[in-house]
From TrEMBL:
Pfam families for this protein: HATPase_c
Membrane topology: Multi-pass membrane protein
Main location: membrane
Protein's UniProt keywords contain Amino-acid biosynthesis: no
Catalysed reactions, semicolon-separated: ATP + protein L-histidine = ADP + protein N-phospho-L-histidine
Any one biological process term the GO annotation gives: cellular response to phosphate starvation
MF GO annotations: phosphoprotein phosphatase activity; phosphorelay sensor kinase activity
PANTHER family (UniProt xref): HISTIDINE KINASE, PHOSPHATE REGULON SENSOR PROTEIN PHOR
Coiled coil regions, renumbered to chain: 64-98
The protein's name in its UniProt record: histidine kinase
Gene3D superfamilies named in the record: Histidine kinase-like ATPase, C-terminal domain
EC number: 2.7.13.3
């Protein structure tokens, strides 16, 4: 009942307008000496109209109440689904963490075993173990993409430190594939998340080494962007926009290397979160250059 009166109060202007019209109506009837029977009938009609108005107000309140209850119920179900989804995602993440931990143990053993072999065999094993490690890290990163905003740690650091670390990591790949690295040293302090930026750059460098096998890879800093360029197979113009799509693999017939379609998708997601614009410039059969922009 309180709600009804509140709603009537909200529509007081409408009621006042109706009341004034009724008063004017009764005054006119009185001035023109309308018959008593007619006056009673018209009064009853006016009263009935007011009753209908109040009933419609009550009906609208009931509908509003029902709608609010439905909204509350739906919000509750959404929260329950989100909690269930989070629980499932955490279970999957825990499984992968356990799996990655288990698989890193034989990788470490494999690297130790490689030290007893000749240089060529040792480098071959290190290349394989590095690829396995990269895929396991990529799988874990993919799982973290859905809620990694909470894991971001923004700070200022030297960009070249990350680049040099990755170059050392892929040194064996450069040597074994006879790929020439042209690294132009630089000093550049950037504001970003060090862990995720390193992961993003690793995917691009890994692609550059893979697709420029036996050719050249150029890395350096120019103006306000880091460039990673390879003189490999190149990318068709109509494919450049698609290479960042999840699961996309180039259909370039001259490129024998097939990708997982996850690496550059991770690059796109991280770059969006860290606000680092990534542009690609490529000429088929000549070169591909990735540019990662940093705001000063």
């Amino acid at each position: 009942m309180k709600k009804i009166f509140e709603n009537i109060k909200m529509k007081s202007k409408e009621l006042l307008f109706v009341a004034l019209n009724l008063i004017m109506f009764f005054i006119i009837m009185w001035l023109f000496d309308v018959r008593k029977e007619v006056f009673i009938v018209l009064s009853l009609m006016s009263f009935i109209s007011i009753i209908f108005y109040l009933l419609s107000t009550f009906d609208s309140l009931e509908k509003e109440k029902y709608t609010k209850e439905r909204i509350v119920d739906l919000e509750k179900k959404i929260r329950e689904l989100e909690e269930k989804n989070t629980e499932t995602r955490n279970d999957i993440k825990d499984y992968f963490l356990s799996w990655i931990h288990q698989i890193k143990t034989p990788i470490t053993s494999l690297n130790l075993l490689a030290e007893t072999l000749n240089e060529n065999e040792r480098n071959q094993i290190k290349m394989i173990s590095l690829s396995i490690e990269n895929y396991t890290d990529m799988a874990l990163s993919y799982l973290n993409l859905s809620d990694f905003s909470a894991d971001i740690n923004i700070k200022t650091f030297e960009l070249s430190d990350i680049v040099k670390k990755l170059i050392r990591k892929y040194r064996v790949h450069f040597i074994e594939t006879n790929t020439k690295l042209i690294f132009k040293d630089f000093n550049k302090m950037v504001i970003s998340d060090k862990k995720y930026l390193e992961l993003m750059l690793e995917q691009i460098i890994n692609n550059a080494v893979k697709y420029a096998s036996g050719k050249e890879v150029y890395i350096g800093y120019k103006d306000n962007y880091l460039y990673i360029k390879d003189t490999g197979y190149g990318i068709k113009n109509d494919e450049i926009k698609m290479i960042f799509n999840r699961g996309y693999s180039s259909e370039n017939s001259i490129n024998p290397n097939k990708s997982s379609g996850i690496g550059l998708y991770i690059v796109k997601r991280i770059s969006q979160k860290l606000n680092h614009r990534v542009l690609v410039d490529s000429t088929i059969g000549h070169s591909t250059e990735f540019r990662i922009y940093f705001n000063d």
